[in-house]
Amino acid sequence: MSYTFHIEKFHENYHEMESIYQQHYADMTDRLSKIGVECSPFNPRLDQYFAASEGDWLISYIARLDGKPVGYCNVYITNDMHNRDLIAQEDALYVLPEHRSGLGKKLVQYGLEDLRNRGVKRLNVNAMTDLRVAKLWERMGFKHTCHSMTYTF
Length: 153
Description:
This protein is of the alpha+beta class. It has helices at about 10-35, 45-55, 105-120, 135-140, and strands spanning about 5-10, 60-65, 70-80, 85-95, 120-125. A hairpin with a 6-residue loop joins strand 3 and strand 4. It is globular. It starts with a strand and ends in a 14-residue tail after the last helix. The model has no long low-confidence stretch (mean pLDDT about 95).
């Protein structure tokens, strides 16, 4: 088994990736519902995702095994409103459960190298589906910079 990593266009591969996006959303909403945070059903704003992808400010890093997608990381790139630094915000990161022995770390490393080459100064990430991933990020050099909380109505 040999994994490969690719930068792909969200708007070009969405239909191939849709089942992984749906599984990720289901896993995330399942965890959140256990702590009393209910989410609406999966219904992505594809017009906005496609526009961001076509505008090159949504980058999709895809992990594949024998050509089949098994994980992804979608990242938005923008300029910081306070100082104009080029920064990135992770939209979503997910690896199928049966491929999780180190693949997520390799996917993140691949994305970090690309972002560094683009001149990005900071990448912000959020552990939503599995909070244990924050420990991995910490070992990779990420720093705790805030504490995110959600209020539901």
